[in-house]
């Protein structure tokens, strides 16, 4: 079930930070970045951040951004916060409340708005947050054949990645991904059988 967000305070904090630079040592990737799946398949894509400090700053204290996808090809099934092995590295103490400190929504066709805000102290995050981890995992349904790019909207009004203090922007490189959805194998087999049947009929008439 989607968590609808209500975070006017968070938005005001994020937008009050300094201007964002779209390039830096920190990298956010889609993993896998390229995938081919059949229509009807359900699959997972992780959003992974790397290049953070090892037992030191920089670490992430908050983020709020939009994931863009082709809603004619994909449909969001669910979204789960945290790393499957390391746990939620932004909510290390487990204090976050869904819908207040973290959440997501399909805010417009092909747009997933995702946010999280840490309640851990700056010193605790800097000392304990991993230097690379899964921020969240998205599960999609492949609903039609075609191609869907995956990207993070880096518009200043829709993107914020903040340090452990929750006040300073962290510059980051944002890498895109792409999903190719192909016809289901069953449909392809039926199509081939149909072509073969027509060919046999034509040979009989010849």
Structure explained in plain terms:
This protein has 206 residues and is of the alpha+beta class. It has one domain: Immunoglobulin-like (Sandwich). It is built from three helices and twelve strands; from the N terminus they run H-E-E-E-E-E-E-E-H-E-E-E-E-E-H. The protein has helices at residues 8-15, 122-128, 185-205; strands at 26-31, 34-38, 42-50, 60-68, 74-81, 102-108, 111-117, 133-142, 146-152, 159-163, 172-174, 177-182. The strands form two sheets. Strands 2, 4, 6, 7, 9, 10 and 12 form a seven-stranded mixed beta sheet that branches. Strands 5-8-3-1-11 form a five-stranded mixed beta sheet, with no helix packed on it. A hairpin with a 2-residue loop joins strand 6 and strand 7 (111-117). The chain is elongated and about 55 Å long.
> What share of residues is helical?
10-25%
CATH architecture: Sandwich
Mean pLDDT comes to: 85
Number of domains: 1
Low-confidence stretches: 1-23
Q: Helical region count?
A: 3
Q: What is the strand tally?
A: 12
């Amino acid at each position: 079930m989607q968590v609808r967000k209500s975070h006017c305070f968070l938005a005001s904090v994020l937008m009050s930070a300094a201007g964002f630079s779209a390039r830096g040592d920190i990298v956010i990737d889609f993993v896998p970045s390229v995938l081919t799946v059949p229509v009807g398949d359900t699959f997972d894509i992780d959003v992974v951040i790397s290049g953070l400090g090892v037992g030191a700053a920089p670490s992430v204290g908050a983020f709020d951004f939009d994931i863009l996808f082709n809603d004619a090809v994909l449909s969001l099934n669910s979204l789960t916060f945290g790393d499957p092995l390391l746990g939620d590295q932004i909510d290390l103490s487990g204090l976050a409340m869904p819908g207040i400190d973290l959440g997501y929504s399909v805010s417009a066709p092909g747009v997933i708005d995702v946010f999280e805000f840490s309640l851990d102290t700056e010193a605790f995050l800097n000392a304990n947050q991993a230097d690379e981890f899964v921020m969240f995992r998205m599960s999609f349904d492949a609903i039609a054949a075609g191609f869907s790019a995956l990207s993070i909207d880096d518009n200043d009004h829709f993107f914020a990645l903040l340090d452990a203090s929750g006040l300073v922007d962290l510059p980051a490189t944002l890498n895109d991904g792409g999903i190719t959805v192909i016809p289901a194998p069953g449909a392809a087999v039926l199509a081939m059988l149909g072509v073969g049947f027509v060919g046999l009929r034509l040979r009989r008439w010849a």
